[in-house]
Specification:
Largest sheet: 6 strands, mixed
Number of strands: 12
Distance between the termini: 40 Å
Bound molecules: alpha-D-glucopyranose
Shape: globular
CATH topology of the largest domain: D-Maltodextrin-Binding Protein, domain 2
Order of helices and strands: HEHEHEHHHEEEEHEHHHEHEEHHEHHHH
Helix content: 40-55%
């Protein structure tokens, strides 16, 4: 894990660039709707909290602990699809119709700019100030991810970064490069009860974009530069995409790898079907769950393999926000405050395996025990190296373009060069550059 040494300020710097890029257009300036809809004393209020499928049980625990502390608030958990893109589309349908059927919901790091600009979110600054929430206790980049046009629209809940999981009982030295990974995966495929060499997310959905960015960035490729110009058509991006195609079309991955999301990945991995897999930190909680995993205590975690330019993880993670049309802003905020504060994030770390954004938790012995990652200073610092996806209100269009063109290349319907050229042209159209 020593390879993960990197300054936390890197994350801050990266996210500052993004938030600057995100500033400057439109923005919804709606004020919070006062205390409207708050419970009258003694009256019980129900709020609906939505998030994507939770395979860990952390959400139910958070709701249970919150309700114990707030006997006047009932939280109904509405489980959304595991696929972030599908959840996104359902929220957009609901929120663009000004529906109040959900009060609180989790936002993928790629959404706040879009949702804030569309006016779907209640600004949180007033609550943050009133309740003395010290945002300096949070990983700066995670706070920035919820900030748009100078307002805080969502509170950071946890951060994600792509990791390489490997079977300690089968792998002597985790691979340092993509070529080493390919070689080791070929050699180990079929050994120790495995069927495959490597698992990743190659379905046409958001996870594909995350995997793609890791490949191209590890060879020095980028989608946009710091000023938001489209720079995807470069020899570096082409090289990275070629490596991705080589792995996806090799026989180390399952034949149906282009149907794999995180769900298929972790299911196969905890069944013991592969020596290597790429996934987010939450999978460690499942690996160590005796009720579902066949590989308890057999798994190590390392940085993703490097290309010419080093090892790169895509920055992921989730924030929590409030529906602007909620009838219960006060109760909704209480829940957001609890879930994204020290107590809620501790539950997310311990039961959900996800990395806190609330920094003091990294010194908490129970959190450190939950995942080997959390006691490694280098891990928190590694997140700082993670590469964000473009932050812009039109992100869904950018993502769609990448998903379609990369999928065609993976299916052998076009070359890496053609894919990159098509992406360049379509991205320029969408971004008006
Ligand atoms: C994880 C990440 C999120 C990303 C998604 C892709 O949930 O936290 O940022 O978009 O995976 O599948």
């Amino acid at each position: 894990m020593r390879a993960w040494r990197k300054a936390l300020s890197g994350l801050l710097a990266a996210m500052m660039v993004i938030s600057l890029a995100a500033c400057g257009s439109g923005g919804n300036e709606a004020a919070p709707s006062g205390d409207g809809g708050g419970a009258k004393s003694g009256e019980k209020v129900k709020i609906v909290y939505a998030r994507g499928k939770d395979v860990t049980g952390a959400t139910l625990k958070i709701v249970e602990e919150f309700e114990k502390r707030h006997p006047n608030i009932d939280v109904e958990f509405r489980e959304m699809p595991a696929d972030t893109g599908q959840s996104h589309d359902q929220y957009v349908t609901m929120l663009s119709a000004k529906s109040d059927e959900i009060d609180v919901f989790d936002l993928d790091v790629i959404w706040p700019a879009e949702f804030a600009q569309a006016g779907y979110l209640l600004p949180l600054d007033r609550f943050i100030e009133r309740d003395g929430i010290n945002l300096d206790n949070y990983i700066p980049g995670a706070v920035e991810a919820g900030n748009y046009n100078g307002q805080q629209w969502a509170m950071p809940k946890f951060l994600d970064a792509g990791l390489l999981y490997y079977r300690k009982d089968l792998v002597k030295n985790p691979p340092k490069t993509w070529d080493e990974l390919l070689a080791q995966a070929k050699e180990l495929k079929g050994k120790g009860g495995t069927q495959f060499g490597y698992l990743m997310q190659a379905k046409q959905y958001e996870g594909l974009v995350c995997n793609f960015i890791e490949f191209i960035a590890s060879y020095g490729g980028k989608v946009l530069d710091d000023k938001g110009n489209v720079v995807i058509n470069s020899p570096e991006t082409i090289k990275g995409l070629k490596k991705m195609i080589e792995i996806v079309r090799s026989d180390v991955v399952p034949q149906n790898i282009t149907t794999f999301t995180e769900l298929e990945t972790h299911t196969a991995f905890i069944e013991g079907q592969a020596p290597f897999t790429r996934n987010w930190p939450y999978m460690y909680a499942l690996v160590q769950d005796k009720n579902q995993s066949k590989v308890v205590d057999k798994v190590g975690v390392a940085p993703l393999p490097a290309g010419d330019a080093g090892s790169v993880a895509t920055l992921g993670g989730w924030l929590t926000g409030i529906n602007k049309y909620t009838k219960h802003p006060e109760e909704a905020w209480e829940f957001v405050k609890f879930m994204t504060g020290p107590e809620g994030q501790k539950i997310t770390a311990i039961y959900g395996g996800s990395s806190p954004t609330y920094l003091p938790l990294y010194d908490d012995p129970e959190v450190q025990k939950a995942s080997p990652l959390f006691s490694e200073k280098e891990y928190v610092e590694a997140v700082s190296k993670a590469v964000p996806r473009p932050v812009t209100p039109v992100y869904p269009k950018i993502s769609d373009i990448i998903q379609i063109e990369v999928s065609k290349a993976l299916a052998g319907q076009q070359t890496a060069e053609e894919a990159v050229k098509n992406m360049e042209q379509k991205l320029k159209e969408v971004l008006g550059k």
